[in-house]
Amino acid sequence: MISYEYIVSDKQGLHAINALRLSKAASEYESRITLKSRKGTADCKNVLSLISLGARHGECLEFIVEGQDEIKAIDFLKEFLQTNL
Fold first, then answer.
1. SS3 letters across the chain
2. How wide is the angle at C-alpha 47 spanned by C-alphas 20 and 52, nearest 5°?
3. Which of 4, 12, 13 is nearest to 59 (CA)?
4. Which residue numbers delimit the HPr domain (predicted)?
5. Suppose 19 and one of 29, 38, 50, 61 were both cysteines; which one would form an S-S bond, judging by CB atoms 3.0 to 4.6 Å apart?
6. pLDDT digits (tens, 9 = 90+) for 35-81
7. Phi, psi of 50 (to 5 degrees)
């Protein structure tokens, strides 16, 4: 298990387009990728679950990755988040 914390820098927060991109990319990995916020948890492979968190600008999110390809998945997440969220 690997975890990574990220503070949302997008002024619109985790909106539908970013959530869709994140869930689509997360689905390419075998590992389970979970997102924790102050409002709860979401499966990163489920776009509706991500949107329901309503993560806003400045909010700290914790990504938890568990599985065979967790190192590849967390490396991807770090890059994705910095360029998209």
1. CEEEEEECCCCCCCCHHHHHHHHHHHCCCCCEEEEEECCEEEECCCHHHHHHHCCCCCCEEEEEEECCCHHHHHHHHHHHHHHHC
2. 120
3. 13
4. 1-85
5. 50
6. 999 999 999 999 999 999 989 999 999 999 999 999 999 999 999 88
7. -65, -45
